[in-house]
């Protein structure tokens, strides 16, 4: 009886559909990433990264610079423009995000000591949305203006991303590790001006 069952075309169609569904599920969810990490240890700028003192965050300056190359030949060392600590959203996330103006006048985002979960299709975004804690912050970053800096290089370690010239850093005041596939933030940080 069982041999006859496996000879019917309907059985083979069912087996094929189950196999295709399983393959798609593995591709879509990539469950092995839950137990694997990707460590990145890029060289970061040598700026001092002191946390803001006092209980209140520093007041933002009237205008933050746009991400454009410097025209002054006096720019000789990197300068810390803004920084913030990550808060967890969909996944536990910690580390520091900072915007640094490099010696040549360009801007870059540096993720220092990042520790989050690995996941499918993770991106690094600058956003104009405020960072909210808890579930209220999970889905807000695709609602407003944003600049994608690229795919997340690794879920752990130090890494840097070039900020495109012309990016308005006065408007884009937060950074998120964004899962494009599921439209959710793994974690985010408010970028508070340092000077």
Q: Short description, anyone?
A:
The protein has 195 residues and is an alpha+beta fold. 14% of the residues lie in helices and 32% in strands.
Describe, in plain words, how this protein is organized in 3D.
This protein folds into two domains: 2-34; 38-45 and 63-193, Immunoglobulin-like, CATH 2.60.40.200. It has two helices and eleven strands; from the N terminus they run ααβββββββββββ. It has helices at 2-7, 9-29; strands at 39-41, 79-85, 87-88, 94-101, 107-115, 122-127, 146-151, 156-162, 174-179, 184-190, 192-193.
Q: How many DSSP H or I helices?
A: 2
* Percent range of helical residues: 10-25%
Label the CATH architecture of the largest domain: Sandwich
| Total E-strand runs | 11
The average pLDDT is 83
- What is the string of SSEs from the N terminus onward? HHEEEEEEEEEEE
Unreliable sequence segments: 52-62
Largest sheet: 6 strands, mixed
């Amino acid at each position: 009886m069982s041999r006859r069952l496996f000879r019917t075309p309907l059985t083979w169609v069912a087996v094929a559909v189950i196999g295709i569904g399983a393959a798609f599920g593995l591709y879509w969810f990539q469950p092995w990433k839950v137990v694997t990490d990707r460590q990145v240890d890029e060289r970061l700028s040598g700026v001092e990264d002191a946390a803001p003192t006092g209980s209140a965050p520093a007041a933002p300056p009237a205008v933050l610079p746009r991400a454009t190359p410097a025209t002054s030949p006096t720019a000789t060392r990197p300068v810390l423009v803004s920084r913030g600590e990550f808060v967890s959203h969909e996944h536990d996330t910690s580390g520091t995000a900072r915007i640094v103006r490099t010696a040549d006048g360009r801007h870059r985002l540096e993720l220092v000591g990042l520790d989050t979960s690995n996941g499918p299709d993770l991106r690094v975004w600058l956003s104009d949305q405020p960072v909210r804690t808890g579930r209220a912050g999970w889905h807000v970053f695709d609602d407003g203006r944003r600049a994608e800096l690229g795919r997340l290089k690794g879920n752990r370690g130090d890494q840097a991303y070039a900020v495109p010239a012309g990016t308005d850093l006065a408007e884009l005041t937060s950074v998120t590790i964004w899962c494009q596939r599921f439209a959710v933030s793994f974690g985010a940080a408010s970028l508070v001006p340092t000077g």
